[in-house]
Amino acid sequence: MSNLEVQPDEVGCSGTASDGVEVVTPREVPLGGIRAMLVRRTLPTRDRSMIGAWCFADHYGPEPVSSSGGMRVLPHPHTGLQTVSWLFEGEIEHRDSAGVHAMVVPGELNLMSAGHGISHSEVSTTATDVLHGMQLWLALPDAVRDEPNGFQHFVPDAVPLAGVDGTEAGTARVFIGALGGSTSPVVTATPLLGAELVLTPGARVNLSVDPSFEHGAILDTERLVVAGVEIGHASLCYVGPGSSTLTVENPTDAPARVILLGGEPFGEDLIMWWNFVGRDHDEIVAYREEWESAAERFGSVDGWDSDERIPAPPLPNSRLKPRRRPGQS
Residue 189 carries which DSSP code? Predict the structure, then answer.
């Protein structure tokens, strides 16, 4: 998915709830067009740019396509990142300049690696009545960010989660990394976790997690308690490294669904502007110029005319600088 803001910037709000646990409330961003589909963005914000290598998180829907017009994201570029598409409802057609043509459907992971450069399009299909899901990005470390692009697909099984009382408390679909005895074969450049959890009403689960990871939980439903802190719909709860157990509780009388992200803190400075991840201002300027001139780096997407593409927005008047992460001096 493209970042279609006219003036892309890392903005938002974040606050510490208690004991180092942060709650990030989402901001609404239109995907463009007259009947713009709105997404709720929790990464990046001014105070929380990343969770591990996870550097971008949009939550959208459930949205009837009759009112939004659905998703029609024209060919657009990416560099230095991986896109992770995860749907709850609907169907999206993916095409990219590496020749991949794939469908995004509920419960199945599509991961596209931009590497040196790629362009792609995303369009909801005519079979879609409601769109509902998540779009996530992963920053690639410097050692591999200029490698060739690629694509991975994986269908994780739903594995049971045990509650604190020993009874079944829900399910987990682990699409990246490992959790609860389930391991994904998807290859990432840094150690990561990505999973969809569905908790039964009133369930409380103690998850065994990697203590070197920082974690973030993005709630799809109405209420959830993470590490003792309650969050609301589409909000993100951040929990820093140090604990081998993460407690998640559903205080409601309906199932709760949450996307759990994790990873080792990302130690490199980077600049994320529009759809590019780079390391300095001049690099971003060069990416933009190459996209605007239809350079070979980004190729072309089959099924679209040459003039059907998203133009890059204007650069800001000031030089782009890496965003400081919490804890940096």
Answer: S
Is the CA virtual torsion 165, 218, 269, 329 positive or negative? Answer: negative
What does 211-275 look like in DSSP terms, one character per residue? TT-EEEEEESSSEEEETTEEEETT-EEEE-SS-SEEEEE--SSS-EEEEEEEEPPP-S--EEETT
Position 306 scores a pLDDT of: 87
Q: Write the pLDDT tens digit of every residue in 181-211.
A: 999 999 999 999 999 999 999 999 999 999 9
Which ranges of 69-115 does DSSP label H, i.e. alpha helix? none
The CA distance from 225 to 251, in Å, is 7
What amino acid occupies position 284?
I
Whether residue 84 contacts residue 122, with contact meaning beta carbons closer than 8 Å, is answered with: no
Rounded to whole angstroms, the Cα distance separating 43 from 37 reads: 18
The candidate with the shortest Cα–Cα distance to 157, out of 107, 220, 104, is 107
Q: What is the pTM of this model?
A: 0.93
Question: Please, what's the b/e burial string for 287-296 (b: 16 or more CB within 10 A of its CB; e: otherwise)?
Answer: bbebbeeeee
CA-CA distance, 154 to 141, in Å (whole number)?
A: 23
Among 3, 32, 26, 31, CA closest to 13: 26
The C-alpha atoms of residue 238 and residue 218 are separated, in whole angstroms, by: 9
Paired tokens of 13? 């709000």
Could you report the per-residue pLDDT of 27-60, keeping only the tens digit for each?
A: 999 876 545 678 999 999 887 899 999 999 999 9
CA distance 300 to 96: 8
What are 31-40's pLDDT values in tens digits?
Answer: 765 456 789 9
3-state helix, strand, coil in the chain (%, to 5): 5, 45, 45
Burial class (CB in 10 A: 0-12, 13-18, 19+), 280: middle
**CA neighbor of 95 nearest in space, from 293, 299, 274, 288:** 299
